[in-house]
Amino acid sequence: MDKKILDFTENDFIENWNTSVSSSTDCTMPSAPKKRHHRAKKNNMNDEPPAKKSAPSIQLDAGFKWNLQALAKAAESVETGGKSPVSALNELGVRVSYCVLRQGGPAHCPSFTVAVTVADMTFEGWGHSKRDARASAARTCLSALLARAGRVLPNPGPQPDFTSDEAPKYPVSEFQCIETKIQPPDGNGNKATPPPGLFGPAVSPVLKSPINMLYETYPGITFHCSFGDGSPLDTAQAPVTLSHSMRFKVVCQIKYQKFEGYGSSKKLAKLAAARAALGEMCEKTMSHARPVSSDGLPQLLADHVAKLVNEKFNEMMRGDLVHSKRKVLAGIVMTIDNKLEGAKVIAVTTGTKCVSGEHMSVRGRVVNDCHAELRVTKILMKIVNGSNARARARVSLLARGQLRTKIESGEGTIPVKNCINVIQTWDGVLQGERLLTMSCSDKAARWCVAGVQGALLARLLRPVYLRALVLGSLLHRHHMYRAICGRIEGCISALPPPYRLHRPLLARAASTEARTPARAPSFSVCWSITSPYPEIINATTGKLENGHPSLLCKQSMFARWQYLVRRLPLLPQDPAGPYLPPLPQDMDHLLYDEAKNLCSTYQVAKRCLTDAFEQAQLGRWIKKPIEQDQFHCEILGADPALLFA
Fold it and tell me: For residue 61, what is the domain's CATH number?
């Protein structure tokens, strides 16, 4: 350390110090200490090396000096975000001590006051956590020292929340976090205004909340709050069967119209009700209010779909607190001609796990993927109704990214490019290799090309596409569109008729899903309109909790297909499409894999999809071991009432 910089060690001798505590704005600096050792002067001037230039310093009260270069370096590291104020202060080479002065506030919003002592100077900082308060105190100390040098440490701006559903309320340059660009002078020779610093305050227009906009536009509106099931708030005991995201309900009434909103708190429920009202009442698009979608899906319809799915889940799980826990909820609502009247929930599922590799079945008796978004389409394959009905899926998850695979016995996905074995083998999985399953966003992209009916029903039905996707949270329209169809629309071609690249309508419910920071349960709840009670599937084993196969396993699907194909006419041969082979005479010895290949048109469409992914350099589609589909139908002569339950 430079000799001219004050070094506070145990052997330092300090005198004439001002022991008064200084504030964060005006401080009295200590006097310079007397040096105990002096550098010996050499008698021979020729042998003396050239003298070093002293580092620039700032002169404080009582003759105290501080290394300006070290302070400037610390300020620069804090301003650019390279270091925290605490780290920058510690690296100045002085003794620093922190202590908590006060602690208060409610449990959900605590407040802390921390004092930092540097060279008998004390500065205070405040924050909602001890860490934030400590950083605030360190920043105050650095600001006070820099103020004596004529410099100002910029105040920190709000940190961006990348998990928020709201759009940013201030413009952020895409190069702002990389460097500060110098603007060229304009035609008059005047320099343009430089962009604000990273920690500088951003100039933003005043945005009003949906609630304030409603009060200004409709002064006579009223809000009525209750629990999610409609019971008043003064009830002796709050209902415990409600999901976290529907704990409170707020009804916004504008004249004779009522709009409902749900949330995990009264504030969120009131905000959701205001968004729903604005989405119906306002004509102009305002991004911060989530109004009518630009792609044509009415916000009122999106909110109604989300409400029906949530209410159905709460209804069927009433009294079952164990299985009412969930991370992802998905459902399919059937509407006719975009009318709210007559909208019917036909499937509701939960789940976020995949089967373990050691529980794979060569007889088609397990459910491989228990993710809610995928189980709900399997249920739809059981109960597909009239051709004039339009299905709408509602999920509370965002699809994203390149081709990805799910992690066995874990959560999250990894890119396909990081996978070593693109072709999975039965022996390899049993010997310890991870069983890979394509992500939900990749399978949703397959729905937009090949439909949700699957390969078996493709001989009986034309492609079934979802009319709209309504998300409960984390909806970024551009990211969602790219995930399900945008990333392949420039590469996919030669689709056989009647297959096409379908672009579903996208919307987000006004009552957003609450974030649940807990580990996902290892079960999946699956309910269909044809069953009075839901199935509880163990996601690890792929079977019911009692060990029996599920009605959604491949063996059950194969049995239902054989029952239908023997009684219903097949689709006619399309002259412009590939050749459709006839059904074999001996259906009892038909393999599941052979039955899927009977619809060559579907297989060609799916091959066009995988080729488009490879052409776009997004990775290759990873399939399950082929042994999983090499089985015969074991359910013969079953009662149709039980088979289609």
Answer: 3.30.160.20
Identified catalytic residue from 79, 260, 358, 373:
373
Measure the CA–CA gap between 600 and 604, rounded to whole angstroms.
6
- Given a cut of 50, is residue 165 above it in pLDDT? no
Report in angstroms the alpha-carbon separations of 472 from 194, 333, 380, 509.
40, 14, 20, 5
pTM of the model: 0.59
**What is the b/e burial string over 567-583, where b = at least 16 CB atoms within 10 angstroms of the residue's CB?**
eeeeeeeeeebeebeee
Per-residue model confidence (pLDDT) at position 282 = 62
- For the stretch 65-73, contacts whose Cβ atoms lie closer than 8 Å and that sit 24 or more positions apart, written own/partner, are 65/4, 65/5, 65/6, 65/32, 66/5, 66/6, 66/145, 66/148, 67/2, 67/4, 67/5, 67/92, 68/149, 70/5, 71/142, 71/145, 71/146, 71/149, 72/151
Residue 366 confidence (pLDDT) = 93
Last residue of a domain, one of 142, 157, 172: 157
Look up 373 and say whether it is catalytic.
yes
Question: Do 552 and 379 touch, CB atoms closer than 8 A?
Answer: yes
Residue 549 in any domain: the answer is yes
pLDDT confidence band for 455 (50 / 70 / 90): very high
- Kindly state the tokens that stand for 392: 């709408």
Expressed as residue numbers, the domain containing 524 is 292-643
pLDDT in tens, 37-85: 444 444 444 455 554 455 555 554 444 456 777 777 777 777 777 778 8
* Number of domains into which the chain is organized: 2
pLDDT (0 to 100) of residue 382:
66
Domain edge (last residue) among 134, 157, 180 = 157
CB 530 within 8 A of CB 645: yes
Residue pair 426/625 in contact (Cβ under 8 Å)? The answer is yes
